[in-house]
Fold this sequence. Notes:
Distance between the termini of chain A: 20 Å
Radius of gyration of chain A: 22 Å
Structural class of chain A: alpha/beta
Radius of gyration of chain B: 14 Å
Structural class of chain B: alpha+beta
Number of helices of chain A: 14
Number of strands of chain B: 3
Strand order of the largest sheet of chain A: 4-10-9-8-7-5-6
Order of helices and strands of chain B: HHEEEHHHHHH
Largest interface: A-B, 16 and 18 residues
Oligomer: heterodimer
Low-confidence stretches of chain A: 1-11
Number of strands of chain A: 17
Shape of chain B: globular
Strand order of the largest sheet of chain B: 1-2-3
Strand content of chain A: 15-25%
Distance between the termini of chain B: 18 Å
Largest sheet of chain A: 7 strands, mixed
Low-confidence stretches of chain B: none
Number of helices of chain B: 8
Amino acid sequence: MTEQIKSVKAPSVVPGFDVNKIREAFPLLKRTVRGMPLVFLDSAASSQKPRVVIDAISNYYEQHHANVHRGVYALSAEATDLFEDARNAAARFLNAGSTREIIFTRGTTEGINCISTCFERAILQPGDEVLISGMEHHSNIVPWQIACEQTGAHLRVLPVTDSGELRMDLLDGLLTERTRIVSIVHVSNTLGTINPVEEIIRRAHAKDIPVLLDGAQAAPHMIIDVQALDVDFYVCSSHKMYGPTGIGILYGKEEWLERLPPYQGGGEMIREVTFEKTEYNDLPYKFEAGTPNIADAIGLAAAIRFLESLPRDEVLKHEHELLKAATQTLTEIEGLRIIGEAADKTSVISFVIDDLHPHDIGTLLDQQGIAVRTGHHCTEPLMNRYGIPGTTRASFGMYNTLDEVEFLCQALRRAVKMLRG
Amino acid sequence: MASIDELQKTTIGEFALFDDWTGKYEYLIDLGKQLPLIDPQYKTDEYRIKGCQSQVWLNGELQDDKVHFTADSDAIITKGLIALLVRILSDQEPLEIAKTDLYFIDQIGLREHLSLTRSNGLAHMIDRMKLMAHDFTERV
């Protein structure tokens, strides 16, 4: 097939950054799909994993596995050291002040559910308000809806502009004396918009309102500093930042985590149990009931060390170049409209083409070996805001190349031609 | 009227002519565009088979002891697949539809569209067609 991508040899425009070396670290990128090289443009849904992450998990199971924290024997101590070292890595990654503020979760969704449930039990009263935005993932809508239903609190929504930015002019009016928490996405998974979270936090804190940031899309593509942000809660998922699935980080300011009740009950989170009363464990264990996901925490630590080993500024610049190239070449396609044209974006590009259905576009791209995501991207209210059923979304990771952007464009032209007939 | 089995074999024969995915998909798109419009009264939630991404509307009624199907989708490739199903199953006897094995889907290499049940609702559509046919068997 002549249109097929020939190689990934394109030199990066970012000096000092060698995308080919990066690609070599990811075994899966070597495979083919339908006899063609895989062009993986769905990293916003889940990124691929470098060899070091895969090896760290195997090595743990082959050499060090035992249950953590309670064992008196050497192997359990090894597993505990590795697990707590992972917590250190997570704290370093987010620049948290202490490992007491780092809770391991199953992912962003569980992190939000933990805080919404704790707020439901301890903070929210009838008539209180929770403020989210119009570009939230369902994971940052539904948990708060449940908490509001249970308590009689109300969900308020900060609207989104046509270009895909938050209506910051309306923020102060929505931060009322009844607002108990602001829970906002740091970077939109559908639009790629980087929200002005420093400003949101500053204005919320001026009214003593805590802020939770959904960092699922930000963590892989930005340098996160929870202390500089002064954010109260920050949640992210390992699998979107080159780590394994099934593990995520919930950062919470110590004062908040001390104040909130536990999320789940069980082993690990207790100090003393009688039938009459249970004394809870110290932070962070108070929020980690049951045997934790030890292996994937260790895998996540390997992903963090992998990120730390790279010149991150150059990685982020490379991703930005991919976005710039994609934006430029895709907009040359007749009838193509980009959804999400914020000034500040990560490497996510969502688009619609006339009245062509995203599902059809995705199917024809798949036939050409390109993996993109189509649909509402778990942001149905946002799709309704734009009056569209869904978009086609290409999202880039550090391992994508300018050749792949070009190939996407060619394949898309071919798909459009076939669909228009 | 050819039997379901004969129609499946004809369809497999047609698809055997394509040597790559392009021809196959162009044909599906073409079939989708040619699919007769569904009566608007059936394009409501009641007749909708909800998929995660593309929607399917299906109506089946008994005409001269045979089941007549009409259907529609908002995505054209899904519509092409619907056209194949309607061509093979429509205007057949209810019992024949209910007990049929749709082996043609595997043989023309479109099984993947059925496993993606969440995305296009096509597998649910086949279930619904068979269920309708099954219900009609008692009225024949």
